[in-house]
Amino acid sequence: MSAVRTKYYLDKQNAKWSGVCAGIADYTGIDVTWVRVGAVLLTLVGGFPWTVIAYFLVAWMANPKPVGLYDTPEDAKFWQGVRSNPKRSAHAVRSTFRDIDRRLADIEMYYTSRNTRLADEIDSLR
To answer: What are phi and psi of 64, to 5 degrees?
Structure first.
């Protein structure tokens, strides 16, 4: 896939207007409703012209999200974690691989050790 999964995209599929808030929600993993409420509150509290200008600039400059960017919802959650904290995500992947490697070593040790019960079971199958 040529699309970059750690880049911000407009989410046109879940968009109300142009997909800016839905894109922010997809990028950060926050519910889109909270992002929209935050944008409205920020506009009403005192950022009126600047939030509207920023909204339209982002809508004009950002690319739409490619169809099929994520294969599964778990894949989307993983990439949201990578975007929010890449160091923690890399640590989690390394930890998972370390755990898998340890379990494979345990299995290998079990099968290659002198296990008379296992040898008897294999002999009984012959």
So the answer is: -70, 150
